[in-house]
Structures are given as structure tokens and as C-alpha cells.
Design a protein that fits this description.
Length: 143
């Protein structure tokens, strides 16, 4: 049985989600508009959602708890939660262990793309089963 066609499933790294949320009129506005218009289906796992929640609370962002909730409410309802199986999908070796959950999510969620600004992740693009794209490349593909 095949899955009904829907918007492309994508993994968006925490820094890009954060930038799209905090800088509402910045260069990542088209990314935010795409998930709001349901032209893409962002994927999250327990680990990646927890990272976003943790990062929003960083003092450097000076976001009140209410502002943090509002930003999460502008993203998480549009997301599909993917359960990462045990054992998790095998991924290429990463220099940064915090990148591994995004690679696992892309594989487990059968993502069309992993969208990132992380150079370490972008360097894995050639040998990874899912396309790893910069934000600019992905936004261009939406046009």
C-alpha cells in the first residue's frame, strides 16, 4: 500500500527553524510561509523537537516563556512527528554528534530533503540517501 501524495516531507535543522521563527521578515521567510501554507511537511522527532524547545530558551534570544510558546505554536502544529526506530537508521560519521538525530530523522521519515545551514551536514550530501540542501537551494526549489 502506498502513502497518499501530500506535501514533500522535509527535515529542517534547528538553526534554520529558529531563524525563520525569530526573524519573521528575514531571508528564511519563504521557508516559514511554505510550512504555513502546507506546501511542505516538516518532520520532527522527540530529540529534534526537544532541541528546538531548549534553544528557544537560550538567554541570548531574550524570549519570554510566552514568546517561546508563540513561536513553537507557529511551527510544531505544522510538523509530523516521526518515531525513530530502535536500532536507529545507520548514518554517516558526523563530526558533531548533535547532527546525527537530523540524519536519522531524514531516513526514518523518508524525507525528500534535509535542509540545513550546517557545513558539517552539507559536507555529507554526496553520500547520503536523502538530499541535503542549503536553505537557499531548498527555497529556490519551491519557486
Amino acid at each position: 500500500m502506498t502513502r497518499p501524495a501530500g506535501p514533500p516531507r522535509v527535515v529542517i535543522d534547528t538553526n534554520l527553524v529558529l531563524s525563520a521563527l525569530v526573524f519573521a521578515h528575514g531571508r528564511l521567510t519563504p521557508l516559514r510561509q511554505a510550512w504555513q501554507a502546507q506546501r511542505i511537511q516538516p518532520l520532527v522527532s522527540r530529540v529534534t523537537a526537544a532541541e528546538l524547545i531548549r534553544v528557544l530558551a537560550y538567554p541570548k534570544f531574550k524570549l519570554s516563556p510566552e514568546e517561546q510558546r508563540e513561536l513553537l505554536a507557529d511551527y510544531l502544529p505544522y510538523c509530523k512527528t516521526v518515531r525513530i526506530p530502535e536500532p536507529p537508521p545507520r548514518t554517516p560519521t558526523c563530526r558533531d554528534p548533535f547532527d546525527v538525530p537530523f540524519l536519522q530523522l531524514a531516513l526514518a521519515g523518508k524525507a525528500k530533503a534535509l535542509v540545513t545551514g550546517d557545513r558539517d551536514l552539507l559536507s555529507l550530501a554526496r553520500g547520503f540517501a536523502c538530499p541535503i540542501l542549503s536553505a537557499e537551494e531548498f527555497i529556490d526549489s519551491l519557486q
